[in-house]
Amino acid sequence: MAEAAQRLKSLVEQLLGVPLPVRIRAWDGSQAGPPGAPALVVRNRRAVRRLLFKPGELGLARAWVAGDLDIEGDLYAALDLMSELVWERGEDTRTLLQMVRDPEVRAAARGLVKVAGLPLPPAPPREEVRRTRTHLHTKRSDRRAISHHYDVGNDFYEIVLGPSMVYSCAYWPAPDATLEKAQRDKLELICRKLSLTTGQRLLDVGCGWGSLAIHAAREYGVNVVGITLSQEQAAYARKRVADEGLTDRVEIRVQDYRDVPDGPYDAIASVGMAEHVGAERYLEYAEDLYRLLKPGGRLLNHQIARRPQCDESSYSVDEFIDAYVFPDGELAPLGSTVGQLERAGFEVRDVEAIREHYGLTLRRWVANLEADWPRAMRLAGPGRARVWRLYMAACALAFEHNRIGVNQVLAVRTPEGGESGMPLRARTWGA
């Protein structure tokens, strides 16, 4: 039998109908593929079985998380090259039936079965979320989804996020700035857009580890209620608030946005939270925030957006992200988000696209993770650490290539008289 790497390369190219852009290094030490290209390391036959039983993105993800697959060389370059095979094969219009009827495809599949060995489906890695999708975005399911993503361990997130402990897109003055400077600039930008002043009440929806709440209270003298569904985040944020001496101004609650009883607030910030709401709940979410805001109050909604599709009914959640990263998370096009906010009663006053900023942010997070990789694996487990490395690197490329974006939408609950309270030149972000 030929060396495993050359055999795998030939069979995969036969299945795909195109040359492989990366090298393959197999479990027997053999290599095949373009010299100098990043290598896809196939550590064992189990990796092949995973792909046979679950072809496509999820099979690759399972093999990666389990440690059956790895990448040798530049991670970003490898993902970029492989994206054309895994995520961008829309030009291949053959149906599954047509592919099965193709004698070459059938022969290649039989060849892979021989290479894979005993044809038993490996169990999914324990990091994979196992659930039905029949009751999305109930309060109970949202708590479970948030816990899966955020209750990984605060020590692990300290490695990834650095001292700022801000888990959303930073706002970069220059590409070579520090992550901490860029995150502080983002918090400052939000506070200026909301025109915060001493004594006001701010609701921070999805407050994370408390960074925005602390910044707003300390620098602007506002009273903040921060809400999260993560017990670990809340405990960490409360300690930070106490250490800053701000317990008289900042309250951190474990609470669903649908259960906040004590409006109205002068301003509301929702940063990196709306992606968890879900399409069927988004209008309810917008209406709840509108209800909680006083007339003339401002909402700053910071949210990732996907590109719109010709047929929106064909949208499906990314398999890897849904199974391993953000269960039940959904992305919406910017126009849909703005439309839902307007339907709820808001006047949308400004939209700032900061897509390039997220690519820079994610690359810094990946660098932080890789710089302390052994400790990260001890804290979160090898599988979970691999999940985070893959998803952050892949998302960095998605932002850089305009597959997804991120936007800050500033909206006002404008009173009936029409006085929005906005300056004539809003981009100066004056009071």
Report on this model:
By secondary structure, the chain is α/β, with parallel strands linked by helices. Helix content is 45%, strand content 15%. The protein is built from 17 helices and eleven strands. The chain has helices spanning 4-16, 45-53, 57-66, 75-86, 96-101, 103-116, 139-150, 154-161, 179-193, 211-220, 231-243, 282-292, 319-325, 334-343, 355-371, 373-380, 382-400, and strands at residues 23-25, 31-32, 39-42, 69-72, 201-205, 223-228, 250-254, 265-271, 293-306, 347-353, 404-412. Strand 5 (201-205), helix 10 (211-220) and strand 6 (223-228) form a beta-alpha-beta unit. The model is unreliable at 89-100 (pLDDT under 50). Residues 156-389 form the Polyketide synthase-like methyltransferase domain. This is Cyclopropane-fatty-acyl-phospholipid synthase family protein. Belongs to the CFA/CMAS family.
